[in-house]
């Protein structure tokens, strides 16, 4: 990834890698595919099949308002960008991995790609890119496995986006920092937020507390539909189903098991907003 000042370009994380908790067989498969299959073809495959693992994608109209600006933080191979470009007037994708940012630019010329890591301050940071490639490993900031590359770091507030109606965050445990760096934008526009929230990243209480203070309440999508997060023990569920991730992206596609829920939809609570406005 370049260490230049980030720019928006028309044109961001990993099928297995983004949520991997192990699985030597999956890693071998991922390394093999990454070595012989062009990234653009891997991207096309991921975008086509990913709704089978992330059903929120099939319910986009539930929580992504039409028009305005939609922000996809952690664009990976573009499963969210693919659908957002048909819903929002403007789509901005933030992706730190240089190879994936290139995939996104080529796949979505109608979107804007910010080649940087989203955080709570601007500058530079080390991104650790797995040698096995994006199909089989996790790119992470601040430490990890693989080779470190210095990349640009931005706050969402620094992008000066307007009329933001939806933000998706999936950046492997760096969500809290990204939220803090988007405080002005979020508190001004009150967009719906879809956030990857995982107990294993040890940030759940802080994220929930921050969003609660901003007037947001959470919901999760189950087979029965959307239910309040307050009525679902997300921590217990994730501890019981974490082993599903060991089977990897391809394994879960070929032999679906119990779903691992880690996406939480946050919407503004009108009662909290009204109360805050009168204080």
TrEMBL record:
Composition-biased stretches (Polar residues): 1-10
Keywords per UniProt: Methyltransferase, Transferase
Signal peptide feature range: none
Keyword Methyltransferase in annotation: yes
Biological process according to GO: methylation
InterPro entries (alphabetical): FkbM_mtfrase (IPR006342), SAM-dependent_MTase (IPR052514), SAM-dependent_MTases_sf (IPR029063)
Region (Disordered): 1-27
GO molecular function, one term: methyltransferase activity
Statement: the UniProt record of this protein carries the keyword Signal: no
This protein's name: FkbM family methyltransferase
Organism in which the protein naturally occurs: Thermomonospora cellulosilytica
């Amino acid at each position: 990834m370049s260490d230049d000042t980030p720019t928006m370009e028309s044109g961001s994380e990993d099928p297995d890698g983004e949520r991997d908790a192990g699985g030597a067989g999956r890693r071998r498969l991922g390394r093999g595919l990454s070595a012989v299959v062009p990234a653009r073809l891997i991207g096309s495959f991921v975008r086509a099949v990913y709704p089978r693992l992330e059903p929120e994608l099939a319910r986009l109209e539930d929580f992504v308002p039409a028009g305005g600006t939609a922000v996809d933080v952690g664009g990976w191979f573009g499963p969210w960008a693919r659908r957002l470009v048909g819903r929002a007037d403007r789509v901005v994708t933030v992706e730190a991995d240089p190879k994936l940012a290139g995939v996104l630019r080529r796949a979505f010329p109608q979107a804007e790609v910010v080649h940087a890591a989203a955080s709570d301050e601007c500058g530079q940071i080390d991104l650790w890119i797995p040698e096995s490639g994006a199909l089989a490993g996790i790119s992470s900031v601040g430490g990890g496995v693989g080779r470190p590359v210095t990349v640009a770091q931005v706050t969402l507030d620094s992008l000066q986006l307007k009329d933001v109606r939806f933000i998706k965050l999936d950046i492997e445990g760096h969500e809290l920092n990204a939220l803090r760096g988007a405080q002005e934008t979020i508190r001004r526009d009150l967009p719906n937020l879809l956030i990857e929230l995982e107990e294993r990243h040890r940030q759940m209480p802080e994220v929930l507390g921050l969003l609660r203070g901003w007037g947001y309440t959470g919901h999760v999508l189950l087979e029965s539909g959307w239910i309040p997060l307050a009525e679902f023990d997300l921590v217990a569920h994730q501890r019981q189903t974490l082993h599903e991730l060991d089977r990897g992206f391809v394994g879960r596609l070929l032999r679906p098991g119990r779903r691992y829920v880690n996406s939480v939809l946050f919407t503004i609570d009108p009662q909290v907003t009204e109360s805050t406005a009168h204080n």
